Amino acid sequence: MKLNTDNLTDLCNLAIEAARKAGAHISKTRPTDIRQDKEGDSLASQVLTEVDGQCQEMILETLEPTFAEYDLALLTEESPDDGSRLVKDFFWCIDPIDGTLPYIEGTSGYAVSIALISQEGVPYIGVVYDPIEHILYHAIRGQGAFRNEKPWTLGHVEGRLFMNTDRSVAEQPEYPALVAGLENFGYGKLETTTHGGGVMNAIWALENAPACYVRMPKEKVGGGTFWDFGATACIYRELGAHVSDIHGDPLDLNHADSIYMNRKGILYATDAELARKILALKEKLI
C-alpha cells in the first residue's frame, strides 16, 4: 500500500504516542530479569531485560491497528524476523530500548526508537525518545525534523570536534588511527564518547555539531541492525546532515540476506565537509 502525506503524518503521530508511553515506563523502571540470550558480537548486542519486552508490548498496542489498515509489516528487536518486510511496501522497525547496557548500568545513552521503512530500505518516519532528558526527536520524509515537536536546526560549536562510537568499535585495531586522523582535521580539540547505544550516539552528534558517529566494518556478524539506524537516518536526512555506510553509499535498511550492518560500517556526520574528510580518512584505515 502506498502512503500519502496525510497517512505518514497520522502514522508518525501514533509512533510518537507509542514512544512516549514506552519512554515513560522506562523512566520509572529499573531493569530486572537480565538475560544474555541473543545473537551478536558483543555483550551490548546480546543482553536484554524484562523491560524491553514490556516496552515492545506497549508500542505494539498503540501501533497494532496500523498493520491491517495500512498493510504494514513488522521488524522488532524482541521478535524473530518473519520476512514480511521483504513483501510489504512498508514495515515498522522498532527497538524498545536501544542501549540496553547503559540502561542496565544506570547511565545515559539509551532511547526508544521507532522507524517506518519502505521495502526499498528508505526510512520515511523516524521517532526517538530519550527517557532521561525527556526529549522527543522525530522526522517525516519530506516534512523536516523536529525536537520536542518544534522545527529543529543544528547548532555549531567552534574550537572542537565531537565523535561518538560504540564500545566494540573502540576495541577495533583501526580505532587509534581513526582518532588520530580526526584530531588532525583542524577543528580543534577532539572529544569522544563510547558508552551510548547506536541511537543516542547518532542523536548526540546532532546535539553537538560539528560531530560524527562512526562504525568501522568488520567480518564478524553484528555492527548494528536496521532498528539501530532507521529512525536516526530519517532524522539526519531531514536535517540535511550526512548518513551513509562507511564507503559513502546510501544505507540499505532492508537487504534480504541479513539484518546486520557489520560488513558496510556506518557514517553519520553533521555536515557534508566533515563526512568528506572522514571518507577520505577511511581509505587509509581499511
UniProtKB/TrEMBL annotation:
Binding site for Mg(2+): E77, D95, I97, D98, D228
InterPro entries per UniProt: Inositol_monophosphatase-like (IPR000760)
GO BP term (any one): signal transduction
Cofactor needs: Mg(2+)
The entry's keywords: Magnesium, Metal-binding
UniProt superkingdom: Bacteria
GO molecular function, one term: metal ion binding
Residues that span the membrane, as ranges: none
Protein name stated in the entry: Inositol-1-monophosphatase
